[in-house]
Amino acid sequence: NSVDRLVCHEFNRFRERVATFDKLQQTAASLGKARPVTRLLVITITLGAWLICVLIATQFLTFLSAGLLLGLTTVLIFTVMMIPPRVYGTSVEAIEGRVLVVVEKLQAILNTDELGFTEAAFFQVRDVLREANAELRQQVYLNRVDARR
Q1: Cβ-contact 46, 80 below 8 angstroms
Q2: Can you give the pLDDT at residue 2?
Q3: What letters, b where the CB count within 10 A reaches 16 and e where it falls short, cover 28-48?
Q4: Rounded to the nearest 10 degrees, how much is the dihedral formed by the CA atoms of 122, 125, 131, 137?
Q5: What is the separation of C-alpha 43 from the centre of its chain, rounded to a whole number of angstroms?
Q6: Which of 30, 49, 86, 89 could pair with 37 as two cysteines, CB 3.0-4.6 Å apart?
Q7: If DSSP codes are grouped into helix, strand and coil, which group holds residue 61?
Q8: Nearest CA among 46, 45, 67, 66 for reference residue 56
Q9: Terminal C-alpha separation, the chain
């Protein structure tokens, strides 16, 4: 479950564009923004905090207090590494699931014939949405199977 900052930013722009359409505003609001917080960013911040603790501990604390503080912050680093990225960021898999929700809503709107397409345009849009739906469902399924391994 990886977090990709660029995909998160792209999804947030996509979500804003979707929210401009009257029929999709409620769907866009229910999706929520993607959080582009990667494991590298979290570990960098944690290591920065650890370095500050090292500097403080060596300059201002007694030997016992410094050892205790450095031991606790070292445990904190390993604890942060054990937290899955989906807790603090939005994974690519979660974004694919959110896009699937939008595709399904578009299919529902298309099937109610609210868009007023010509017959040729209707079938072309229907085929594109079906293909996108099938591809996204396959990705979501493959990610679910891969996560179980």
Answers
A1: yes
A2: 80
A3: beebeebbbbbbeebeeebee
A4: -100
A5: 18
A6: 89
A7: coil
A8: 66
A9: 13
Q: What angle do CA 104, 26, 137 make, to 5 degrees?
A: 20
73: tokens are: 């912050």
- Between residues 132 and 2, the one the model is more confident about: 132
Distance of CA 84 to the CA centre of its chain: 12
Length of the chain: 149
Give domain limits for the chain: 8-34+91-149, 39-88
What number of other Cβ atoms are within 10 A of residue 142's Cβ?
Answer: 11
Euclidean distance between CA atoms 90 and 24, whole angstroms: 22
Angle at which helix 63-82 crosses helix 39-60, to 10 degrees, equals 180
Which token pair is 92? 């690519």
pLDDT at 1: 52
Task: Give the mean model confidence (pLDDT) for residues 114-118.
Answer: 77
